[in-house]
Amino acid sequence: MSAGLDDSGGSEVSGVLSWFPIELPARQRVLGLFVAKWVIGALRPLVQLKIPDLLADGPRTAGQLAETTGADPDSLYRALRCVAAAGILREPADGTFALTAAADGLRSDVDDGVRDMFLFTCDPMMWRPYEDMLHTVRTGEPAFDNVFGAPFFDFLRENAGSAALFDRAMTQNHYPGTDRVFEQFDFSRFPRIADVGGGRGQFLAEVLSRHPGCTGAVCDQPQVVAEAKAEFERRDVADRASVVETDFFAEIPAGFDAYFIKHTLHNWNDRDAVRILERVRAAIGDDADARLLIVDMLLTGPGEWDLGKLTDIEMMAALGGRERGLAEWNRVAGAAGFVLANDPVPGDLALLEFRPV
Ligand SMILES: C[S@@+](CC[C@H](N)C(=O)[O-])C[C@H]1O[C@@H](n2cnc3c(N)ncnc32)[C@H](O)[C@@H]1O
CA 300, 336, 285 angle in degrees (round to 5)? Predict the structure, then answer.
């Protein structure tokens, strides 16, 4: 046994290593991680070919699916078989493949699906930076910039197809943790709410539909908010929602009771996060009752399971941003002129309420 192993001799299987249905000798266990690579590799082309959509009316054989999509029958069959072995499709003994609930969520025509989020997360723009992680770890610089020659949001401004995929994915950026935030926090305290970096207005629409007394504005880049009006109409809140084209490093509009900023500050390093929050602080001016509401990961202590400790790697590789614990949030918000006003619960998503000082 290596001197570095603890009293258990390293025999405990915990964390992601416990998720794999493969019994491997302890010293080979990390190889189980590659299951994720193989399954994602097989699933991505199936989603691109809209196989989940094609299975919505019932099971089909690989041959039928190949004929409809024009794919190579043998390669398609092997990708389907892999994904079924992984439990994402079903492969009954009659030679067909059928949807599971997870695959149903990858259809293009379901309201609560994750197709765009899946395709974004395994798109080359989010995959290729991982080839260059050593650069990030050596230099502290995001690998994305090294691979694509520009920072993430500059790249999106130059690549409309990638930007549209990102914006669509963000409309699916909704997990049980998001519902917890919406259910536990009383947004009705704030008649006028600004959603800073609010994308296509998906979360502002959610808040407004839950709180009929609130009005709000989504503040994001012009090319992003261009789609927000349609979202507000779709959610039946268009009469209480407006759109403000914003560069949040330059100016954030004044006149709101709460400035909500969700899943956005983690895209930026501390220096840039402080710059954004300084713009929020300037917008609030001397309105002591106004609030900054940060909705983001709130990291737990050392050694604890925490999804944010994993998504932090994506922030580091692609954006040069970071997930933060309470001390880090207090430092960043404090530097911009805010002090914490609630007792946030750490977790995969938390709401931190700050008041201006
Ligand atoms: C990760 S997305 C989060 C979107 C949304 N809040 C959510 O939770 O799904 C970050 C958002 O920041 C916006 N953003 C990036 N740079 C910006 C800038 N300079 N000014 C305004 N918004 C910006 C992006 O357009 C994007 O919508």
Answer: 130
What topology is assigned to 177-356 in CATH?
A: Rossmann fold (3.40.50)
Residue 247 Cβ contacting ligand 1 at under 6 Å: yes
When the pLDDT of each residue in the chain is averaged and rounded to a whole number, the result is: 94
- pTM metric for this prediction: 0.92
Share of the chain above pLDDT 70, in %: 95
Domain 35-107 has CATH 1.10.10.10: yes
Q: How far apart are CA 220 and CA 309, in angstroms?
A: 27
The residue whose CB lies within 8 Å of the most ligand 1 atoms, and thus the one to mutate among 157, 179, 219, 221, is: 221
Domain ranges of the chain: 35-107, 119-169, 177-356
* Top mutation candidate among 264, 277, 294 for ligand 1, by most atoms within 8 Å of CB: 264
Atom 27 in ligand 1: residue holding the nearest Cα: 199
Element (H, E) at 296: strand 291-298
